[in-house]
Known about the structure:
Layout: H1 11-31, E1 49-50, E2 54-58, E3 62-68, E4 77-82, E5 85-100, E6 103-118, E7 129-133, E8 136-142
Parallel strand pairs: 1-6
Antiparallel strand pairs: 2-3, 3-8, 4-5, 5-6, 7-8
Amino acid sequence: MMWRRRHIFDPFYELKRMEEWMNDLMGEMQTAGGLLLPESTGKEVAPISRVPSIDLIDKGDTLVLRADVPGVDKSDISVNMKDDMIEISAERKGEEEVKEEGYIRRERHYAKYYRAVPLPASVDKDAITAKFENGVLEVTMPKVAAEEVKKIEVK
């Protein structure tokens, strides 16, 4: 019979305990419906949420954000500006029914897109424009002039 002495430090036992603790923590976050970090763009974040692929282009005096949200109607897209971050959310819903002799098949699908993107520069919130064409959302944001830094002399 092998006895385990508690006063001897076992690094593998501690690593195993830490792994179990992290698995429990991530499981609780996922069941609570909170957004977890995705493996990559386009992958599911929560059971029905997706992170759209984006391009953020700095064109000197404007920032242009392009996001892929395929299969979504223009009326189901929401673009919000919070502090120095832009949020894009969209929902895609659909239902299909096929009636043939001897059976009826009904299918429903639902997907939600969400992405919050921190902006590298301050933008004019009142002059932001957005257009949606062929599954691509394009948001144009004019930059505002950066405030000059005033040096204060220490006496």
